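sanity check this record:
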Amino acid sequence: MIKGKKILISLGGTYEPIDSVRGITNKSSGKMGLALAREAYIRGADLTLVVAKVSVEIPSVFNVIHVETSNEMNDVILDLISDFDIFISAAAVSDFEFRKKSDNKIDSSSSLFLNLKPTTKIIRQIKKINPDIFLVGFKAEFNISKSEMIECARRQIENAGTDLVVANDISNDNCHFGSDKNEVLLVDEDVLTIPLASKREIAKCIFDVISKKL
């Protein structure tokens, strides 16, 4: 039952600045996160969104906290997470950030060496703060087999305590970042295959599974 549950959803792609005008990001559109938000709202959830860089318009009816970098998203989520029943980590959080950011625009006339370091894995901290939360993770892989994708999802379950993982291969036709459709695996103790469908339909399937497990 989703009605009345406090749900936190992260969506979009984080942006990591190189200097005052440049940075790195990813192709995440926020479409899947928004589809999940709409479905949660329809089902009567008490909903909050943590939104990074997106290419979709977020309806004003939603309670939204805007962030830019992976560190900002980390700080906001960890500050909020103890008050929620469900967290859906749909955002594409950068795996790397720059060790040192320039406060000015770097001169483009010479070569540039980018020194990167891993970002904090937000999803691995959630259960340490709120052990009872229902945690949904996403795993976007590229050009791997179904068995390998399931293995990646199981690894996240082991490392982060995720209750459900939504896994997909973004190399498949019509399943890349920004597409309106996807085909995914819902992995917990079982594996549910959802063939190519709209992100709205996938969101419904995800919440059907969550509802059965609460």
The first helix runs from residue 31 to 42. The helical segments are 31-42, 70-80, 126-129, 146-160, 199-213.
